[in-house]
Amino acid sequence: HWFLPFLVxxxxxxxxMFFVRLDGSPNYAMWCNAIPAVINIVLDYVFIFIFGWExxxxxxxxxxxxxxxxxxxxxYLSRKKNVIHFCRVKLSRKxxxxxWRNVKYMCRLGASTFLCEGAIACMMFAGNYVFISYLGExxxxxxxxxxxxxPIIFMVYNAIAQSGQPIxxxxxxxxxxxxxxxxxxxxxxxxxxxGISFFIVTALFKHQIVTLFIKPEYAAYQIAxxxxxxxAFGFLFFAVNMVAIGYYQSIGCARxxxxxxxxxxxxxxxxxxxLLPLILGTKGIWLAVPLAELLTLLFIxxxxxxxxxxxxx
Length: 313
Known about the structure:
85% helix
């Protein structure tokens, strides 16, 4: 009740940051995200611990943060001096037809991003089902720690992909292949460095990470510390996959980006969760997601090699 009415502000904030970045103001876009986050944290403390509003207070704090962020977006886009700004909607038939065409095109391009978010939910659902089948509630508790950790990794890789998309898209339009290649290579290098760093940090500090969520005396603690390094192995492949999906979106290959996302999110992940536990036991459950990412990377590599061979012929 205190969250749903404010989702329009959340949508405006999320989409508005794209416009601000495209207009050449990435720092302002960052503040549009950071300030609502700080407001959310401060109001969480005030509403929950001082006013005693519990979950209602937490929801209201998040919602008010969205309102402030959306207001910052509206203020920016209201400035006529910006290249991207609010304009009066034309109600002519031709204008409505063009608008409808653009909306359909945006939906096709955005489908893969939507499915990337949905794939995380599928991973959590399938993982919980398999873990509770093999290890009971302790297994689900251990896997939930990875589920909390994974979206953070996703957001970092998604930020890398989104940062490069305007550059790739613009240079694809003016057919500047050198600039596209440079940007893509930079994105892949950055993603790989982040992936390797996340894997090393997770492997070295697995006990500290798990302790943030659960105490050592619980059985789930041992399951999590033993399995999370295997799960983190997939961060290396996931990095390249996210960049590839962002790249294909940028050059207008919506079907290919959606296909890659569907493959990693449903069939490849299903193969991992169904087969690996039978072969490797508990270790196989943790390796199911990395296997899905590896198979996706191999599929992308096949597409890349096929493209090179076609260009040669």
